[in-house]
Amino acid sequence: MKLAAFILENLEPILNEWEDFASSLAPLEDATKIELRDHAAAVLKVIAADLQTPQAEHQSIAKSRGMALAVGGNTAAQLHAEERVAAGFSGEQVMAEYRALRSSVLRLWAQNAEITTSDAIQDMIRFNEAIDQAQTESMARYAKMLREAQNLFLAILGHDVRTPLGAVSMGAQVLLMDQTLPSKALKVGLRILNSSKRMDAIVRDLLDFSTTHLGEGIPIDPRTVDLLEICQHTIDEAKTFHPDRQFELKAEGNLEGAWDGQRLGQAFSNLISNAIQHSTPESAIRVSISGSADQVIYAVQNEAEVFSATKLRTLFDPVKRFAIRPASERVGARMQNLGLGLYVVKEIVNAHDGEIFVSSSKEEGVTFTVRLPRQTPHRRSGD
Amino acid sequence: MMILIVEDDLDLAETCSMVLESCDFEVKVAHSAEEALLQIADRKPDLLIADCVLPGRSGLELSQQMRSHHDRRQLPILLMSGSLRNKVAHGDSYDGFINKPFLAETLLAEVSRLLQPAPQSANQPVQGTL
C-alpha cells in the first residue's frame, strides 16, 4: 500500500498514538485535545495529498529545508503552533510532537507494508520532507508569536514608565522653580532632574527597540533643522554629565536641511555615549560633521581596542551581542548596559534613508560614520 | 485663563498643575474623559490638556469629540503621550503635542502658544522633550 493511502485509511490509530504521546508532554483540557487532534489530522491530510502529487527535485530540496512555497492563508502546521502556544507547550515539546508523528506513521506503516521497493523508499523520503516542512512552519510561527509578545511586553513597559517618569522630572522642576528653598534641596532637585533625563534616554531606547522589532519602524517627522546646532547641543549635554572628558568638534559646509532633529539628536547622543563608555577616560572624543550638496556626513571617533570580527558583525544587534557574551559578563558591573543605543542609531539612520559604517584599527581607534542624504522622502517610517 | 488637565496619573496631573499655577493659570484636573466632559460643560476651560491614553474613552477620542462638537470646536487641545506614534497617527484632532516625559518649559511654551489670541497654525508639534 502506498504511504498516502495508508495515512488516510489509518488516521485514527495514528492520531491515537500521537495523542497519547502529546498528553504525556502536558495535561490538556478535552476541548483543546479535540482542536489539536483536528490540526494534526489536517497536517497528515496535507502530507498525504502532497505525497500523491508529482514533485520536481528542486521542490524536494526546498521542502527538506523548510523552504517550500506557502499557498495562501495559514497552513495547518501554523495553526497547530498557535494552539500549542495557547496550550502552554514549549518549543521543544512542539518539536517532540512532530518526532512522535513521524515515528507513529512510519512504525505503523512498516507493520503493514514491505518498505523495500523504490516507490516505497521514495514515499518515505517525501514523507520526511513534508514533516520537515510542517515542523519548520510550526516552529517559525511559534517563535514569531513569542518574539512579538516579548516585544509588545517591552513596548508597553516602556510606554507605561514614561508617565511616572514625567511626574518625577516635573516634580524636580517644581522644586527648582522655587528659589526660596535651601541650596541643598535645590541641588537634590537638580540631581533628580538629571537622573530622570538619563532614565528617559534608556526608556526611549527600550521603546524604540521593542517597537521596531514589531515591524513598525521608527517614525520620523522631517522639518528644517540645523544639524550643527543639534550636534553642539549633544556635546554640551555630554559635557554636563562628563565634565572630565575632552570633546573636539569639527564642522564644515551647509548643515541645514530637512531631517527629524529630535531623532537625530537621539542618534548623535547615543554615539557619543557609546564613545565615552568604550574609551579611556584621558582620551578625547572627536566629532566631525560636514555638509555637501547632497548629503551630510557625521562621525564620532574615539581611542579603543580593535574590534574583533564577531563584535563588528553583532555591533548593531543587542540581542545577539548579549547572547554571545560569556555568562560571567552577563550580570553585575561587567554588563554595564543593555547596548540598545547603537541599534536605535541604526534604525534612526535607516528611517532617514541613510547609512552607518564602523571602522576599527589600532592607529585610528573606532569611528562610527553616519551618512544622511539631503533628500529625505516625505513619508514617515511605519506608514 | 482656565486650563483643564485630563490625566489619570495623579502625580503627573498634580505636578503639571503646580507648574501652571506658578504662572498664574487657574487649573482644574479630571482623571477620565467622562469627568472631563462634565467639567468642560460646567466650567468652559480656555485650554484642554489631555493624556492620549486614559481609562475608558481615550484622550484622542475626547479631542475628536471636541472637534466634532459645534460649540467646542474652537477649544485649543494639547495632547500628551509616551509614544510619538500617536502624534504621527492622529495629527488632525489636536493643536499641540508633547511627548512624555517633558520639561516644564516645554509645557509652558506650548500652553502660551495655544492661548495666544492670534490665529494659530494647526498641528504644530513641539520638538523638545526631556
How would you portray this structure in words?
The complex is a heterodimer of chains A (383) and B (130). Chain A is α+β, with helices and mostly antiparallel strands. Chain A is built from 13 helices and 7 strands. In chain A, the strands form 2 sheets. Chain A has a 5-stranded mixed sheet with strand order 2-4-5-7-6. In chain A, β4 and β5 (295-302) form a beta hairpin. With 130 residues, chain B is of the alpha/beta class. Chain B has 5 helices and 5 strands, in the order βαβαβαβαβα. Chain B has helices at 10-21, 33-43, 59-68, 84-89, 104-114, and strands at 2-6, 26-30, 47-51, 77-81, 96-99. A 5-stranded parallel sheet of chain B has the order 2-1-3-4-5, with helices on both faces. In chain B, α1 (10-21) links the parallel β1 and β2 (26-30). The termini of chain B are far apart. Mean pLDDT of chain B is 85; it is low at 122-128. Classes of the chains: A alpha+beta (383), B alpha/beta (130). Chain A binds chain B through residues 158-171, 173-174, 177, 196-197, 200, 207, 211, 216, 219, 221, 223, 261-262, 380, 382, and chain B through 9, 11-12, 14-16, 18-19, 22, 51, 53, 80, 82-85, 87-88, 100-104, 107, 125, 127-130.
Biggest sheet features of chain B: 5 strands, parallel
Average of pLDDT of chain A: 85
Query: What kind of assembly state do the chains in view correspond to?
Result: heterodimer
* Helix share bin of chain A: 55-70%
Integer average pLDDT of chain B? 85
Tally of DSSP helical segments of chain B: 5
Whole-angstrom Rg of chain B = 13 Å
Note the beta-strand portion of chain A.
5-15%
Using only C-alpha atoms, the radius of gyration of chain A works out to: 29 Å
For the termini of chain B, the CA-CA separation is: 26 Å
How many strands of chain B? 5
Shape of chain A: elongated
- The unreliable regions of chain A are 379-383
Helical/strand content category of chain B:
alpha/beta
Q: Helix-strand pattern of chain B, N to C?
A: EHEHEHEHEH
